[in-house]
Batch of 2 targets.
Target 1
Amino acid sequence: MRVAVAGGTGTAGRHAVDALRTAGHEPVVLARSTGVDVRSGSGLDAALEGVDVVIDALNGGSTNRDRATAFFVESTGNLQRAGVRAGVAGMVVLSIVGIDRVPGFAYYDAKRAHEEAALGGPLPVTVVRATQFHEFAGQLLDRLSLGPLAAVPSMRIQPVAAREVGRFLVEVAVQDPDAGRRELAGPEEVGLVDMARRTAHRRGSRRVVVPVRLPGAVGAALRGGALLPGPDAAIVGPGPLEWLESSDAP
């Protein structure tokens, strides 16, 4: 099969590209580095020629509600319309577990708009909601650090390896790109603060991780397990400790 991956150079998208190649399929990377701007539509029609299925693993690139929403809605709309013109059979969209259980969180509001725009389009769609990646703790250490300190939100997560997310996206794309919604998670619940401390230790960093209790309904939801998977989620390894010892860890 010929499968296009929007965001194919990102955290999950690049693993989807690798999984496609390993399985003998032909990946088409939709990214500005390959001459395709999904948001503007530039280069999209040519890139989707002969494509059977599209995987949308795009990241909004902003935590601002309006900017992220505009990016997702415009990009998925372009993928849908160009996909119809190219005769694409369906689309698989990567999203986040629990985004409808965290009221008022800007990025999750944008992801809900992303899902709605994709599901409301003319192509058949499967939305794959994944839990936070194992890589998430390290990303926060890089973004939320000030000198020797790193402020990390207190929240319960059940992280999954981005490599496994990429494989799952490919599995769904090849087998059933019209399944409505699926959930994917790792095998073990952990506190994000604990995961950040383990990650800092694995990196050999002396940075002190400081827990932060986010206020209001958002903070209560995150601490209360709103981002944990439901009973029907597909569970894949490795767990946090095993992942930290793998070659994928920082």
Target 2
Amino acid sequence: MIAPLLRVEMLAPELPAGAWCAVVMTSVNAARAVERHPRLAELTRLTAFVVGRRTAEAARELGFGDVTSAGGNEQDLARLITARLRGSATPLLYLAGEDRQGDLAADVEMEGIRVSIIEVYRASKASRFTPAAEQALTAGGLDGVLHYSGRSAEAYVDCARAAGILERALVPFHCCLSAKVAEPLLNGGAADVRIAARPEEAALLELF
């Protein structure tokens, strides 16, 4: 059962004039947000630094020829970027979401790399479950739940409270992409919370 808990809205950003040393994206949504941008051809000539496999695939589909993936989380990506770009005279272009849990830009800037942050999408939390999801959780019809982000995990707990089924919604096992993602569920009282060995979907599915 698919029950989206984040509503993604693509923005129409104006990219500043000037040159960049590379592009960084921490979400597939960032890649999707610029797929029709008039300056896309200019962007795809640059190296793209991404957080994981799915974002790397989205970047290649856009036309980026040089894609480097950290294969981990934002801290891993920050270390990769600083190792590759330390001493760069031109800034890094960060295509970001409006709401960011980590602080990738600050981590990179601590190493002397300038970052130009352009917000290209926003993700709003749903206020209610879909009717099918609420019915399935109420009836105890779901064995497990996959959680890909901290914000969607927060939305899950909030939606369960709004529906008056928090206790039932926490009964299934909960597979989380990282310890950070798991926090709202643990704080809510979930007993069976499983954390992926690596922050990628394949590792998440291995938890079943």
